[in-house]
Amino acid sequence: MIHSYWRHNLNGLSMNLNQTDYHLGYSCPERSVSTALYVLSYVSTAAVVLLTVCGNLLIIISVCHFTQLHTPTNMLILSLAVSDCLLGVYVIPTALIWMIESCWIFGGLYRICFTLTSYFLTGMSIFNIALIAVDRYFALSKPFLYNKTVSPRTMCSVLLSIWILLFLYNIALQYFNGGFVSYDGPEDYFLVLNQVWYLIDLFLIFVIPLSVIIILYVQVFFIAKKHATAIRELNSHTRTQTSKNMSDSMKSERKAAKVLGILVSVFLACLLPYFVYTQLGNVEKDSFQKLLMLVYLNSSINPVIYALFYPWFRRAVKLIFTLQILNTDSVVKCICISPPRTFSTETRNYAVTGH
Known about the structure:
The chain is mostly helical.
């Protein structure tokens, strides 16, 4: 997922850009790199875009096609994959071409669409990660209430509302800051926010979601440790089917929390260096672009994380590549995963009373 906080660092960056970039007769400078390096840059760009788009498309197809994967948590993963895929289709190639060419070679209308799309998908990626943190905390801390109240349909309704509201917010953000006015020259590639909108955007899109992510995953870590202790006690003192079901369920939730914790950790590792650097005020263009590249790679890394840690994803991909999804029964075809666990009354009593 891409988190391009260009709107937050315009002043620092513009101070270090060559002043010849800011006149009406501007044209892109001649290339200062060799032809081989220039071609290699575009080949690398194509590879990053291909990995991002294809990897996230596999996630989208897997979750949408196989009914066994229709769980609340997977709806969040699906939403994240959609935003990452759209970034790979449109935002990443545009931004990387801008980096390679060292100037904006597209028109003013394209710039407006690009700015709106990048801000919108950036915010959606961050909100997806925050919702994953909320989902894991809720599932671990209140498993019975979670199973009772959270369904795939409920999660889809929440996600659809956030997609719509965030899109409307970004339209308002650009409209009230002159983002829909087309200018000549590369300088209007950035959207200049006034102080009020800057603070609103900073807290709404970054500070609040990041705080939620960090606080809840710290809580998830401690809950997972308690569950590990409880599992050991269950295994050492009882051998009933009820205790086995309880132990398996707790292990499943802990594993899900661990994998999604890795997802969040990679997300923070890619985002924080860029965000911290761009808030320092004295931003160098070269450093800015390198850190931005690190941010872009996050959208490509997410499918790799799923492939490494989610057996269901690997099996789903195998069915896709072998074209078995074309079979009429492939929608319910077993991919060797367990459906979301539900606790029986007996298990619930054991969890509450300990016997």
